[in-house]
């Protein structure tokens, strides 16, 4: 099964990041297509699309 693994969830700027919104919007249909395609359902492992960016900022912990 293919998934999108983004570091966005722990980024302080995730709510205002236009790139994040665009990437998830564009990649979600691709991931769904890969998961539904018969030729990939019998594959030996999972696929992960990893998103990372240069402006990643760690959310401060309380």
Largest sheet features: 2 strands, parallel
Give helix % range. Answer: 25-40%
Strand order of the largest sheet: 1-2
Percent of residues in beta strands? 15-25%
Report the total helices. 2
In total, the number of strands is 2
Q: Gap between N and C termini, in Å? A: 35 Å
What do the pLDDT scores average to?
Answer: 76
Structural class: alpha+beta
Order of helices and strands: EHHE
Q: Rough shape?
A: elongated
Mind telling me the C-alpha Rg?
Answer: 14 Å
Q: Which regions contain 5 or more consecutive residues with pLDDT less than 50?
A: none
Provide a quick synopsis of the model.
The chain is of the alpha+beta class and 62 residues long. It has helices spanning 18-36, 38-41; strands spanning 2-6, 47-51. The protein starts with a strand and ends in an 11-residue tail after the last strand.
Structural commentary:
There is one protein chain. This protein has 62 residues and is α+β, with helices and mostly antiparallel strands. It has two helices and two strands, in the order βααβ. The chain has helices spanning 18-36, 38-41; strands at residues 2-6, 47-51. The protein is elongated, with a radius of gyration of 14 Å. The protein starts with a strand and ends in an 11-residue tail after the last strand.
Fold topology:
Blueprint: E1 2-6, H1 18-36, H2 38-41, E2 47-51
Parallel strand pairs: 1-2
Keywords:
62 residues, alpha+beta, two-stranded parallel ribbon, 2 helices, 2 strands
